[in-house]
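User: two proteins, same treatment. go.

Assistant:
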Amino acid sequence: MFNKLKSISDLIISIVFSIVIWLVLGHYDAFEKLMYFLRTHEEYELDELLLLLMVFGIISIFYIYRRVVEQRVINSQLKKLNETLEQKVKNEIDKRRKQEQMLIQQSKLAAMGEMIGNIAHQWRQPLNALGLVIQNIQFSYSRGELNEENLSRNINKANMLTTNMSNTIDDFRNFFKPDKQKEIFKVYEPIKKAIYLIEATLEKNKIKIETSFENDLEIYGFENEFSQSILNIISNAKDAIIENNISLGEIKIKTFKIEDNIIIEIKDNAGGVKAEIKDKIFEPYFTTKEEGKGMGIGLYMSKTIIENNMDGQINIKDIPNGSCFVIKLSIPNIKNDIR
């Protein structure tokens, strides 16, 4: 772009250079030699040479003026282009963030059907117990044994069962509620929440889940989003175990610390990922499942949440008889991160 200071410095350099040339020519009596040359060569006139120099000077000045004007026009256009480009970049970033948030919600909605099945499973036992309480009240009444103490005891038991059922609904509702701000939380808490939400499906398919937590590890970010990313990985392992007909399915989750980083490993025995698709599993809408059985956004959203929203890393590696997802997160600097 046009730089006034650079133009002034170029002008000063030109003046100094002209003075140097003038001094050198004066030292060697160049002007007298020129006059002698003109006197001995009548075909050249002094006024003609001066006129030539004047014309050359005028043309040079005009050329320099045109260059300065062109440079200013170019600078003005570049400035407008930069402003337009900055706005476009900002708009694209905002658009991408909105798309990521929409995909996070889509991922949650995709899991909602399975979550409803888990709610039904977790409600089955308390509903059976509640039915027994009602039958017990009816039986006591038919035998004339329904007194105030008996009735109060059964009512308290029924209230306890309905409270637990209500808490189950609250747990699922809170899971689907978007996080408003980042916070510091224990690593194991969102992992346990994710396991709780899917354990009914795991039990149904006879998939064993093992955990090993270092309970004092803390990270900084969106707890519900992180729980969603863990749930997506566990759900992916569960689907792979079912699809590959693994009779004794296992999922192992371990958290530990290496230097200033927290490592989360999620292992399965589903047979591993084929080499030709390993580089694609984190891409959006990539899935190996049959049509209608998967949207292909679960692992992509896990990667987006962990790497973009929590400044972490996620990778997959082969292990005997399966795969291992490795999540690497920095231990929060409480003062800097909260700012």
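Protein 2:
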Amino acid sequence: MNHGRAVRYTDSGGTEVIELTEHPIPSPGPGQLLVQVKACGLNRADILQRLGYYPAPKGAPADIPGLEFAGRVAECGQGATLFSPGDPIMGIAAGGAMATHILVHEREAIPAPSGMDLTVAAAIPEVFMTAYDALCIQAKMRPGEVVLIHSVGSGVGTAAIQIASAFGATVVGSSRTNSKLERCMAIGLEHPVLAQDGQFLPQLKDMGIKANVILDTVGAAYLQQNIRALTEKGRLVVIGLMGGATGSASLGLLLTKRATIIGSVLRSRPLEEKCTLAQSFAREILPFFECGRFKPVIEKQFPMEQIQEAHALMESNQSFGKIVLEWNEDSTQ
């Protein structure tokens, strides 16, 4: 059996548990593609998995992280006809994307934007698909609505700004860092909110703003404020729990506003749901990349050999947008 390379967590803990190791190259089954991976985005879930807080779902490698990739089709399994060897593609995975080769179902794969470097394309799938699913499919965002995006300088936040703006929403965003808010204004943020001491609601009140849709990565720490910040029939979509998983809020206010709280995660969804999302994304969002309207925001690109440094940068909370890890050509042969 031929071998490539993969990132492996040897245990739960700090960056010292990360190693690069030899990894067997799998063969594609019916309907599958073998992808030679060029690059992958680093996500907060990869950090949490390393720390032991977010284990891989059933069916995904327990010790090889990675939720997104960009690369080229190396081989097509029986009956896989949507792509051909050599085609540039990108996509999400439940895990295992930080390897030189990965198997994906052909309907999960998305064509990489024409002419875009694959290392740049690797910054697209997880954050743009998460934002698209949360705003357009789950919350059913409409033109003219006000959208509040928390952690707006994150990868998902910078993707959500672009999507909300393109779909005709008024974009409000919160961050604990003023410099990130300033950078977000260059990509479509209209109303920046500096969340000081965990408080964003007073600033919204001063601005006279209530939100039709809130995209929340914080969770419990913002729950009560989020409900107060919603309009009647507002929708709160929770996609992260960095501020805690258990909180309290006024159910009476939720009833009065006839508001909706939606929880959403991509990683553990069944294959068919992921395929459906990928096909929808290719139809509705990919054209914005093709015409240059959407661009992934990348803080820094690292060679895969510097993955420990990449983890440290993400954990510092100083990065803006995405961090991308790239395999060198010798690793992927």
